[in-house]
Amino acid sequence: MTPLLSVEKLNVFYDAFQAVHDVDLTVGEGEIVSIIGANGAGKSSFLKALVRQAGRVTGSARLDGCDLAALSTREIVAKGIALVPEGRKLFPTLTIFENLRIGQELGRKGDIGFEQVYEWFPVLRERRDSRARELSGGQQQMVALGRALLANPRLLLCDEISLGLAPRVVNELYAIIPQVRERGVAVVVVEQDISRSLAVADRFVCFLEGEVSLSGRPADADRDTIMQHYFGGA
Ligand code: ATP
Fold it and tell me: For residue 158, is pLDDT > 90?
């Protein structure tokens, strides 16, 4: 069966600096894959490359067989990939509702509408008319996740959604991921918190200096091996 996402020999360059080296990755329909790795390992560059938001990209990335190389970011979102970017990237002076609506306008038609997002994150309904800048960090992250989900992606990319947030809020955010998968959406989670990342994933990939240093199923990987491939020196 063709995987939903199929990436071969993906490289990302920022001028002469190469941040991602020959990465191969497949993600199946409804699969949750986590990418772990230290600061600067190239995780964000990899995710951003999939939606044409990172430097110069070579190699191949296909969504359900469709080559993404020729498409713009907008076209890629419309095809079914949505990114929750590191740092959320909300429009601070727009309301929650207006921020969320952007996802719906740019995305695909599908089952995930405002009601579903408000069910997942009830606080967003209560505060729908507040400006994004007035929200707590956790609430802002819910908006960023909600905005991506309203695009009705087939593949959701989450970049460090736990960053700087209290564990209780992180739990709330991560609780949504299996529910999203139940709708057939595949998810790639980039996370520095290894335990959190492995707990949610069917499969993981570890990046070290822009290369895949280890991959497997969380249950099959022991902590020491992971740490060696996370920090290097394996
Ligand atoms: P972090 O957890 O810190 O976000 P990461 O694993 O996501 O790390 P990237 O953000 O992809 O890693 O960065 C990989 C490398 O590429 C780093 O050395 C970083 O300094 C470099 N880099 C990232 N973005 C740019 C850019 N726009 N211009 C130049 N270099 C960049």
Answer: yes
Task: Tell how far the Cα of 18 is from the centroid of ligand 1, in angstroms.
Answer: 10
> Closest ligand 1 atom to the C-alpha of 86?
4
Q: What is the ipTM score, two decimals?
A: 0.95
Atom of ligand 1 nearest to the CA of 44: 7
Quick one: pLDDT band at residue 132, thresholds 50, 70, 90?
confident
Q: What is the mean pLDDT of residues 17-31?
A: 96
Q: What is the pLDDT of residues 91-129, one digit of tens each?
A: 788 899 999 999 898 888 999 999 999 999 999 999 989
Q: Does the CA dihedral 121-176-172-156 come out positive or negative?
A: negative
With respect to CATH, is domain 5-87+154-231 assigned 3.40.50.300? Answer: yes
Query: Burial letters for 65-79: b for 16+ Cβ neighbours within 10 Å, e otherwise?
Result: eeebeebeeeebbeb
Regarding the beta carbon of 162 and ligand 1, being less than 6 Å apart is answered no
